[in-house]
Amino acid sequence: MRVGVLAVQGAFAEHISKLEKSGVKSFEIRKLSDIPDSFDGLVLCGGESTVMKKLLHELNLFKPLKNMIENGLPVLATCAGMILLAEKTDNGESSCFGTMNITVKRNAYGRQLGSFRCTDNFNGTPIEMPFIRAPYVTKIGNGVEILSVHNDKIVAVRQGKQIATAFHPELTNDVTVYNMFLESI
Ligand code: GLN
User: Fold this and answer.
1) CB-based burial label for 122 (10 Å; 0-12, 13-18, 19+)
2) Is 0.90 topped by the overall pTM?
């Protein structure tokens, strides 16, 4: 099994070490030639979604990755990654991949309360959830399953083989989210 981790910006290193702990080989995607003809799963990490979107286009990574996601490549997207997959953002910014039938609100918890940790259910299992200037989901469309709700806000969703969390599972020791991703591969 080979998992590609988008590594143009943000918290990709934490995902790589987390995958390693689960015994999964991963590789960094920084430029077009890093994308193999076939691989088994993709991680879109947290960071700054506007910067990642810009770099995806500048580095010509956008089209091949979008095609692969549309063709069913399993994806785990966290925080900014969730924003990259969303079809819409609340403030009307143009979408990035837009492959998930969700609307997200960026920096949804405000600047002051931007970062916090809590424990809540992910698909029925209580897990630790670190939020860092996180988005949440304000609207879901057809085919989207809700995996987590925290304080009445949707914070994790799945659509086919795409899993997106507003929080950072790579910053905890829990493997529940990774197990779901790896099972989808
Ligand atoms: N606030 C960031 C954004 O809007 C996301 C933050 C994160 O990934 N931790 O892109």
Assistant:
1) buried
2) yes
Ligand 1 centroid to residue 53 C-alpha, Å? 12
Which domains are seen in the chain, by residue range?
Answer: 2-184 (3.40.50.880)
Q: Does the pLDDT value for residue 112 go beyond 70?
A: no
Paired sense of beta strands 125-132 and 153-159, if any: unpaired
HEC profile of 115-165: EEEEEEEECCEEEEEEEECCCEEEEECCCCEEEEEECCEEEEEEECCEEEE
Q: Round to the nearest angstrom and report the end-to-end CA distance of the chain.
A: 8
Place of tokens 């010509």: 60
**How do residues 143-170 score in pLDDT, each as one tens digit?**
999 999 999 999 999 999 999 999 999 9
Interval between CA 86 and ligand 1 midpoint (Å) = 13
